[in-house]
Design goal:
The chain is of the alpha+beta class and 359 residues long. The protein has helices at 62-65, 88-101, 109-122, 198-213, 260-272, 284-293, 330-343; strands at residues 4-5, 32-39, 42-50, 68-70, 73-77, 83-86, 134-143, 156-165, 176-180, 218-222, 230-233, 236-242, 245-248, 277-279, 296-303, 307-316, 319-322, 354-358.
Length: 359
């Protein structure tokens, strides 16, 4: 399918934020977006047009039954001025898995990749130049049938919006404190935890608020059945370093979002650093015992937004447990430096993760 590019009048171009230190996250959006519609069993009308409000029926099914999925990835301006993305094929594949899980239509991966590249290339002047800043890309699919009743919609809207985002660590690589939620769970076996479904994020708000209220930065989710095993942290995958071995939750149960960063981190650990990695259910009791005995050397989350977030302290059952010496550990730091180095074109890209966008 051809992607039509609708012209924008010069007067329709908005001023770009000038202070890259004050960008924040998710607040600015570029001039254009990609849009296409699904009806009668096929996608149609693929176009790049002005970023503008949609007109939706108040009865649109996404507004009532949360048949909505999304993705999150970034475009980078490399140190030599090129524009790249990081492993977009993984986001495309994950979006199609999310679509299948929520009974939504599949997207043609080639068209999806072209849409990403064409939109980012057109909007490249919106990409900040400071290292750490990037263009955040948010592909989204929503159900649009004007209908009340629980069934899959017959019509959908797929769109991609992009916008400049600031460095996650403008003041340096600062560790966070996390609280194990005993009252809330993020996902259950047989549910949609492995999908990037909007509903998962609505369901996470109460647990996050509870952690914040107790004075912690983020929430650590335990499994929804035994409430015993560590799953994810906030909106990141979670890794622990116990006696030199990196341990993270396995994907098989279907309750963990298979992160692009998680996959990249495990690949670097196994194939480049030759570090021992275990993907296994990790009891929170083992983590707390490790914090007490000193076996727990590091704990960190990973995801597209912050890449690596070191954890300084874990709150569990009303007590606080320090991780390692409470700072950023050597494995977390090395992973952060290497991944950011690859993304900004400063370090070799041994696994061909970087996707050229422009020129
Ligand atoms: C629940 C959850 N887990 C993990 C991740 C990390 O995934 P990725 O590395 O693909 O950004 C995210 C963020 O997208 C997330 O929302």
């Amino acid at each position: 399918m051809k992607i039509e590019v609708l012209p924008l009048a010069p007067a329709e171009l908005r001023p770009k934020p000038t202070d890259e230190k004050a960008l924040g996250f998710g607040r600015h959006f570029a001039d254009r977006m990609f849009v296409m519609e699904y009806a009668s069993g096929g996608w149609r009308n693929a176009r790049i047009q002005k970023y503008q409000p949609f007109s939706l029926e108040p009865s649109a099914m996404c507004l009532h039954y949360a048949q909505e999925i999304f993705e999150g990835l970034k475009a980078y301006r490399t140190t030599d001025g090129r524009v790249t993305m990081f492993r977009p094929a993984m986001n495309i594949a994950r979006m199609n898995r999310s679509a299948a899980a929520l009974q939504m239509p599949q997207l043609d991966p080639d068209l999806f990749l072209r849409a990403l590249k064409d939109l980012v290339a057109l909007e490249r002047d919106w990409i900040p130049t400071t290292e750490g800043c990037s263009l955040y890309i948010r592909p989204t699919m929503i159900a649009t049938d004007p209908f009340l009743g629980v069934r899959p919609s017959d019509t959908y809207l797929f769109f991609i919006i992009v916008g400049p985002v600031g460095a996650y660590y403008p003041k340096g690589f600062v560790p966070v404190s996390i609280m194990v939620s005993e009252n809330h769970v993020r996902a259950v076996r047989g549910g949609i935890g492995a999908s990037k479904a909007a509903a998962n994020y609505a369901a996470s708000l109460a647990g996050q608020a509870e952690a914040k209220k107790a004075g912690f930065d983020q929430v650590l989710w335990l499994d929804g059945v035994s409430r015993k095993y560590c799953e994810e942290v906030g909106t990141m995958n979670m890794l622990f370093v116990l006696d030199g071995t990196v341990v993270t939750a396995p994907l098989e149960g279907g309750t963990i979002l298979p992160g692009v960063t998680r996959d990249s981190v495990l690949r670097l650990l196994r194939d480049v650093y030759k570090t021992k990695v275990e993907e296994r259910p990790l009891p929170i009791d083992e983590v707390i015992e490790g914090a007490t005995t000193g076996r727990l050397q590091e704990a960190f989350g990973c995801g597209t937004a912050a890449i690596i977030t070191a954890v300084s302290e874990i709150g569990y059952q009303g007590r606080k447990h320090k991780v390692g010496n409470g700072g950023v550990g050597p494995i977390a730091r090395k992973l952060y430096d290497d991944l950011v180095g690859i993304q900004y074109g400063r370090k070799p890209d041994p696994f061909e993760w970087v996707e050229r966008v422009w020129p």
